[in-house]
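pipeline/complex-builder :: batch 7 item 3
reading input block
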Amino acid sequence: MALRMIMDESVGSQLNLVTGCVAGAVKKLEGLGLDEATLFNVKLCLHEALVNAVNHGNKSNRDLAVRVVIKADDHEIIIQVTDQGEGFDFSLIPDPTTEENIGKFHGRGIFLIQSTMDSVRFLDGGRTISMVKTFNKGM
Amino acid sequence: MDIDLEKINDITLVSLNGELTVDNTHRVREAFKKILLEKRPKVLIDFDKVPFVDSSGIALLIEIVKGFAKINGRACLCHVNKKIVAVFEITKVHKLFGIYDSHEDALRSF
């Protein structure tokens, strides 16, 4: 089945715009018939990717935007979040679950995305994160 | 995010109502700072009405737990929904938190 566009939206680089964008995406995703846990995880990953793009990608520069593209069919959701920053090497992010990092206040966003999505790729020098979640409709 | 405070003997019950995310961690942090200033070192955080937590919310919870431990106190959680517990387990921060099913179990733990 062909993927259909669920959302293609640009968001300003302000953290207070993230929640509204995520809520709008979740409303559209609810129609796909995801189970509660999958919808929760997709929401979490979109939220974390957007916060990263605003904070670390665009460094909260209000002149820059974050683009969110979500496509889906009956079995998978593909989410791409793209910032306009300088890019980032995601291989440098330390494992937040080790003894020395577990009590730290930062560094869990990307780890949560990698742990809960089925596939995660960083494109264009780290400016785009592409995430895939597969699901069984009606489960 | 609504924050309700109730004193149960020497324990402060903090009931959060809403998503705990980067949007409101500042407000929640300020509420817990006030409890620390009042030198009430035992805190139970009720998550019954918290449907969603992001990594900033997790970081704040770590900050709160560490903050109360520093004054020889303790902050723990109750009524945490399964999806949030799963997030805690993925990041292993559940090892840092006391998580209880009920008020009674949590209050007994102090």
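note: Chain A has one domain: 4-134.
queue -> next item
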